[in-house]
Amino acid sequence: MMEFARRYGAPALLVLASGQPGMAAAPTLMPGAAQIIATGAFTEGRRKDGQGGGTFRKDEIEGLAEYGLLDGLTILFSPRLTVQSVSRFAAVTAGDDVTLVAAGRRIDAGGSGRLGFRARLLKGERDVVSLEVSGRGGAQADDIASPVMRRAAEIEARVLWQRQFHLMGKPWFVDLQAGYRHFFGAATRWEAARSDGEGVFDATLGVHVTPRLLLLLQNFSTFPVGVSGPPGGRNGSSHKAQASVAWKLSPVWTLQAGVLGTWAGGTAWRERGIVVGVWRRFGG
Description:
Layout: H1 2-8, E1 34-49, E2 52-70, E3 73-94, E4 97-123, E5 127-139, E6 148-150, E7 153-167, E8 170-184, E9 187-188, E10 195-208, E11 213-226, E12 238-248, E13 253-265, E14 270-282
Antiparallel strand pairs: 1-2, 1-14, 2-3, 3-4, 4-5, 5-7, 6-9, 7-8, 8-10, 10-11, 11-12, 12-13, 13-14
């Protein structure tokens, strides 16, 4: 495991997430080692249904700072800034003609911070299993592309598993994460599925094409869990995919760029856009 990490560097150990930007992978950092990751996701989308339609644009900047406190224990802090512009349209019918007219524009902005830790539970020759617990609070934006309208605060726990293997002469890894995120003071868009929180499932497949070039395919899914309506109900689920490349400039600097989009879920809004990132590694 450590030979794999020494040869391929930070990209072997950390995976960036667009649905959850700056989300770490299963391995913990060595004691005294640190990483700072900054990502930007810039998306836009459109909605068109029987109630009219609309367009939106969302720009989100997120950072992730991690520090190896002890062997098998990493602490983390992740600030986030979101700016979102939503333009709505109403359908006006005149005879056989249907026209969309502007019905208003709203801009949301919010900032929040996440604080937590990741503890290694098991470590094998090719596998790592860990537990991550974190809490987020702040003035969070009303995300139009999410089933959850507002999150005053949230706490999350997830189990992470990563396996590294060789295929076709290349080093690969798969990283799976599953957990639960509980909301405090939240409301949902779906009256039939009032959500106290949501289940999360993230999956990543990565391949090191060269020691410097890493290809990533990722999926990020959420499923509502509420006091009414079926858990994981289709109306409140969200599924996003991301494909990106990470280029290792030096032993301490890595750049990432890719595309992302919503491919399924209950919300009528569909995000499409790009993601860029910068990774900086210290010590270890």
